[in-house]
Amino acid sequence: MRKFFLLIAACSVLAACNLAPAYRQPDLPVAGHFDESEVPEGAGAGSGRLATEIGWQVFFGDPQLKFLIAAALERNRDLAASVARIEQARALYRIQNAARLPQVNANAGATRTQAPLGSFDPEFADSDATVRFNQYNVQAAVASFELDFWGRVSNQSEAARRRYLATIEAQRAFRLSLISNVAATYYAIRAGEEGIELAERTVTSRLYALEIATLRLDAGVTSSVDYEQAAILVTQAQTQLAELSRSTGQLRNQLTILVGGPVDGPVPAARPIEDPGQFGALDAGLPSALLANRPDIQQAEQQLRAADADIGAARADFFPRISLTGSFGYVSSELSDLFVPAKQAWSFGGLVSLPVFDAGQRQAQLGQARARRDELVADYQRTVQTAFSEVSDALIGRQRYKEQILAQEEAVEAQRRLAEAAELRYENGISIYLEVVDARRNLFSAEQQLIQLRATALQNGVSLYIALGGGLDAP
Predict the structure, then answer these.
(1) Burial class (CB in 10 A: 0-12, 13-18, 19+), 224
(2) Taking a C-beta distance cutoff of 8 angstroms, is the pair 55, 474 a contact?
(3) How many CB atoms lie under 10 A from the CB of residue 243?
(4) Is 110 helix (H, G, I), strand (E, B) or coil?
């Protein structure tokens, strides 16, 4: 009895053996905090909520944009594919994890056999007599079960589990990317629509100016040069209008694909892009928070942990594999007495497989697993660097776009005053019409640039929200 317990204890110790390296987070090649110069004045710590604390339904203030994001999350085909990949990885994990337990199969059978009597006894070889008999059997069997002394099976299961968790993070990352793409495309469309409205107003006013120039030319008050310059202003505005209509139409097609097809039903009204209520203030937090908040970083970490488990499985291949087989059941020629102790049939056995010579195959597999881990360490560090860079770039943009928009608004007002003065000077005969042409052209360009700057600033705000790990559903 004492030897039996010692054997059980020894098996328990061996079964607890795990040859996988302990996980250690790679060194982070980033600073411990964001550059203070990147944080806008009055937008430091505590000035806003963390992105992870704000669901996208709360963060975005435009009702039409929220409607489109909800449609995309529900109907986008790529997102549906990413969910299906999660189920595939989950099934693969369950398949691999099942190897940690014995696979028991049960079967039952019944046969009726007729054979010549001579096949049983040569003395009756010339006899025409036959023998008939029945056989019934019920059996439960374990085909082959590996005793996981070295952690090979458990590490393979752990690797599959980590890859399953990585697919979950990949789906979360794609989900945030989808929200970002929908918002960025939407703001580009809104900028295009406002640019089209501006171009249409400009074309209308310039056509009126062309009519005046035509009348003045017919009356001999002005030269053909002024007329041609007025016509050029019209064609320039018409060209810009056509360009904006083309690009905006293409963006609408892109948005339709992102939201999974045409949207049915009434669509809420949109807010102007200059509306300050598009979204609220965000607190950048600390770079270390990105490790827990960014799904792409979490995905890279899960892949790295899976690589550690792969190394453990590769190391275990150098040790013997011990497998057990067994069966237990009943066999009888009569169904009525099948389940009696005397009809029991059983067998148990074990197999030890010891690697002797494989021409370096196992060593190469271990080297491959280690090299794969080195690759994933570099991927993890690169992912962290990318996340840090995205947040830093968005923080810089948040401040600099604000400054640029204020300067551009002043430039638009200055160009508008210049255009009015140029028209007065021309009407009073002080200057030629070329000054009016240049002033109107510069005003139109400045107004279009202001619209684009506002849209770009909104897109940057979305990028900052997503880069900080925002995009979860509202609680």
Answers:
(1) exposed
(2) yes
(3) 14
(4) strand
Are 205 and 335 contacting, i.e. CB atoms less than 8 angstroms apart?
Answer: no
Euclidean distance between CA atoms 419 and 444, whole angstroms: 10
Contact 214, 190 (CB under 8 A): no
Domain presence at residue 270: yes
> Is the distance from CB of 107 to CB of 136 less than 8 angstroms?
no
CATH number assigned to the domain comprising residue 416: 1.20.1600.10
**Cβ-proximal residues to 455 (8 Å cutoff; 6+ apart), any chain:** 187, 188, 190, 191, 273
- Report how far residue 237's alpha carbon sits from residue 203's, in angstroms, rounded to the nearest whole number: 6
Tell me the Cα Rg of the chain: 38
- Phi, psi (rounded to 5 degrees) for 132: -120, 135
**310-321 pLDDT, tens digit each:** 999 999 888 888
Q: How confident is the model at residue 380 (pLDDT cuts 50, 70, 90)?
A: very high
Residue 80: inside a domain: yes
> Which DSSP string do the residues of 253-278 spell out, in sequence order?
HHHHHHTTSPPPS--PPPPPTT-GGG
pLDDT tier for residue 37 given thresholds of 50, 70 and 90: low
How many residues make up the chain in this entry?
Answer: 475
